[in-house]
Fold these 2 entries.
Entry 1:
Amino acid sequence: MILKGKKGIILGALDTKSIAWKVAELAHAEGAEFILSNAPIALRMGTINELAAKTNSEVIACDVSLDEDMNNLIDAAVAKYGKLDFVLHSIGMSLNVRKKNPYTDLNYDFMHKTFDISAISFHRLMQTLMKKDAMNEWGSILGLTYIASQRVFPDYNEMAEAKSLLESFARSFGYHYGVSKKVRVNTISQSPTMTTAGSGVGGFDAFYTYADKMSPLGNASAEACAQYCISLFSDYTRYVTMQNLYHDGGFSFTGISGDVMEMVAKAGE
């Protein structure tokens, strides 16, 4: 019960495969109360009401690209709970990926939407929280990211730049939020994970397998990521902020593994 008495918001739970869904289940088990939120279209497509019933949570629609919706979400959360202790931003969307537009021939209107929803919304979220003084001191804000922000994964498309921007916002806003309110802001760079959104990326199965064979501990599951998130919402990590934290089984620091070398050797035979 390391989150007993803590209140928060979890954005991005779509279905049982979602990392945000796993975080909500575990946060509830650890004693937290929270509001669940996602875009209106995602609420219609997903099964979030099942999660809400299971965790005794309220669901509030929020288009994170709209200031009005973000204001309404934060106002509702504060009205329900008072100041908040944790917020999870687990949101990413690329129409270029959905339309299978190659990186060298992108639709820029789609790209603007990608950046707005997947990254700028993180700044919008934190700015709204700060302006409304909605976070308790030593509160924790998390965003989910991927190592394509720093290395090239061709089929990840412009989501790579969106994740780079997300991580930069965590560092920059984390400084200001830490100075003013002792609120910590971090991103978790998760292994490729079998979520609905992740599996929509071209070549996902291949680089999921590659990452698993490259990582000394193998790919981290959605459930394991949820456990890491809970630890960062807790009081045990009060002095961790402005960090991009790798949760990837060691992939990020492995040059090459024995399994991958064996795969390459067999392919060359």
Entry 2:
Amino acid sequence: MDDGTIVHIDYDLFNAETEKLIETTREEAAKEHDVHDEARTYSPMVTVIGDGRLIPGFEAHLSEAEAETDYNLDIEAADAYGERDASLVETIGQNVLLRSVKDPEMLGIGAQVEIGGRTGILQFLSAGRARIDYNHPLAGVTLRYDYRITKVVEDRTEKVETLLNMNTGRDDFEVDFEGDDLTVTTPEAIAYDQNWTFAKFSLVRTLRDHLGVGVVVFREVHEPRAVSEEE
């Protein structure tokens, strides 16, 4: 797969040593391993090959993968979430911890906490001290991916629509090409999304790097407010 290719991927992610299922896009696998979430909609992951969104070992394997082929691979920690770093396990005062969390009553061993802008896991809490592990939860773990590329997005307009959905979670944009120039008509509600400004500039970079678009225009349309008969 060339860099910039947009693909849909079904996968099961395991701890290779314990064979515990960590994540899956497949509902059948979730049920089989007793981790099914009724509130979740299971569907393939959508990603851009070579865009740096995935762990290095998975990215490297995808670059050589083919669609509609089943793959099984183990990825060592160094090519996944890195080895564990003892220096990222810190002890702080319990008072510092309590001031940093919104609801101290929800604290428990294994809980995720944010201290000074860093997210970690509470490992120990006693005698006025707390130990926080700032390593990624999967640091030091060899991962196993069972995956299949179920779709390669080929249509240019669909590529843009897919990228918009990936970055905003919305599917109500209008996309129009005139040659290589692109106009995206945005839904009115997007103006109230604080993340849209950042997402917009990120999208422009991706569109130019991987789709070869020229001028990109984001078009806002604000319809007049309907006036009721009572007004």
